Description:
Helix content: 25-40%
Number of strands: 39
Strand content: 25-35%
Number of helices: 18
Structural class: alpha/beta
Amino acid sequence: MARKRYLKKTPLADALDLFLARINASTLASETIPVEDALDRVTAEAIFAKLSSPHYHAAAMDGICVRAEDTFGATEFAGKKFARAGTGAPGPHAFDYIDTGNALPSWANAVVMIERVRQLDSDTVEIFESVAPWNHVRLVGEDVVASELLLPRCHRLRPYDLGALLAAGHTDVRVKARPRVGIIPTGDELIQPGEKALPGAVIEFNSTVLAAFVREWGGVPVKFPMVRDDAESLRQAIRHAAEQCDIATIIAGSSAGEHDLTADVVEGTGQLLVHGIDVMPGKPAVLGIILDKPVIGFPGYPVSAIVIAREILRPALESFLGCATRGYPVTRAVVPKKIPSALGLEEFVRVTLGRVDDKLVAVPLARGAGVITTMVRADGLLRIPSRREGLNAGEEAAVELLRPPEDVENTILCTGSHDLAIGVLEDQLKARHPELKIAATNVGSMGGLLALLRRETHIAGTHLLDPETGVYNIADVKRTIPRVPAVLVHLARREQGILVAPGNPKSIDGLKDLAKGGVRFINRQAGSGTRVLLDYELRKLGIDGSSISGYEREAFTHMAVGVAIASGLADAGLGVRAAAQALGLEFISVASEQYDLLFSRAFFDSARGAWLLEIIRSESFKNAVSALGGYDTHSAGEVLFSQ
C-alpha cells in the first residue's frame, strides 16, 4: 500500500470550529434522577422553585417572640414587662419562647434575642430595647419564592445546588444524559495490560487514559475490543461505535504510514473533515462524521492522544452538555532556558512549576510524544503559539495548570545532578508534609549552580570534584556563583563505578578497559558531576576520552545509563551502585564521591527549608537511602559551607 500524505494540516482553532459546527447537541437524551444522585450532572431544563424557602416565617435566633409594636418605648433605663401567652388570642405585651428555625405564631412579628431578655419569673420577662417589625425573623421566601427560577438549563450541579433543590421542593431533577464516547484501540502490536511484553508488543493503555478523561468531563466511556490493522474490521467497528454512542473515537492509525488506515476508513464510511492538525504533539489527528456522529482519530503516541483529547474531545463533550468542564486556571510563568519550536505549529510543552522568590518558573520536561510519565510529573502545559519559533530564556508564557494553584505554590524545585536519594527525600517529605512536592530536573551539577544564579530553583544537587584540592563542590560554588547567598548541605557519600551487563561479557575490570576495542560506552552529559569525575580519573590514567567508543553519547541520569546497558545499547557506563542494583547490573567500583544539596539562602531560612533539613537528618531518611545500596549517610544534613 502506498504511503499517504496528510490531506491538509489545519490550524487547531479552525479544526475545532469545523468539528464543533457538526455536533448536534439536541440529539443528546435527558433523564430524571433523584437529587441525591445529581452531583456534577447538567440540568436539561430550567428549574423553578415548587416551594418558597423558607415556606413559613421562621425565628432566626433563640429568644422570645413578641409584637414589635409592644416593645416601642423600651430602653436600657425603662424596661417593659411581657406576660407569657396562654391559649387563645394573647393580650397586649404577650411573649412566648422560641428557638432558631421555629415557626412564629400568627400573632407575633418579631424576635428578641434571649441574651436581651431578663426573666422575672416563669411567666414574666422584661426587655430593655425596642425592636422593629420582623426583627430576627426569616420571612417566607427570603431565600426563594415559589415559581421563581432556581437553576437555569445547562448548569452543572454542585453540592449547594442539591440543597437548594431539596429546599425548594424538588426530590427529582431532569438532567442531560452523559454523552457516550466509544473508544476503539487499534493495532497489530497491541497487548492487554498484564500480558507478557515481548519485543515489538505494546501494552494498550491509551483507552484507559481516554476513558478516565471522559468520566472526568461528564461522559460515559464505552470501550470496544481491540481491532487489528485491517480496513474492513475497522470500518465495521467504527460504524458500530457510531450507532451505539454519541461520539466515536479510534486510537492510533491516524498518521501517514502503511498501516495507518483511520483517515481512509472515516472518508470511506462517512465524511472526513480534517486529517492533520497544526499542533504538537498531536499533529496526525483525524476528525470526521459517520452516521451524523462526530468521530475523532487519535494519534497512537500517548501524549499526542492526551493533547487531542484536551483540545478536541473535551470541547466536544462541553458542546453536547452545554457547559464547560471544571478545570484549573491559566497562569503565566518564566522559562529558564530557550525552548525552540517549529514555526507554524502550535506546541504544548509539559512543564513543572515552582515559585522562586516572586517568580513562577516553568521548567520544561521531555518533549517526546510517547513519554507518558512526563504527564505524571507535569504541573502544566505551556502553549507556544504557531507564529512563534520558540521562547527565549527569561521570557514569560501562558501555562494551563494541570494541578490546583496551591499545589504549584507548594512545589520545591530541585535542579542539578541526578540522584536516586532525591526520590527518597520527596517520599519522606510527603509522609510528614503531604501538601509539599519536590520537582527534580536533571541538568547536571553545573546546570544546578547556574539555575541558582538565575533564581530558577530552590536547591541544586551537586557533586563537582575540584581536581586540585580533591574537595567536592565548595570550590565550584565559590568560583561559579560567588555572589549568590547559598548554603551547602551534605546529603550522602555514594559509590560511583562502571555499570556492565550481568556476567560482564566484555571482561571490564576498570576504566582502562573502556578504550579497548569492542566496548561501547555511554557517557553522562557535559557539566554533570559524573562526567567531571570520569574525566578526572581518565586524566590520571593518561587516557584520552576520544579513544573511548561512545564517549560522545550522553545520558542525563544514572538510570538512563543503566537502562542503555540493560537493553544492550551500550556495554558500559559510569553511574552509582544503586542504579546497578536496581536494574540487576554488575558494578565495578571506581570511587567514593560526595553528593550535596546547595540551598538558596532564602529557601534555607524558610519553614520548608527547615523541614527538608530535618528530614535529611532523620534516621528514617538515612536508613532508606542506605538501603538503595552504595550510600553512606552518616553525615547527612551537615552544613558544609555558606556564603
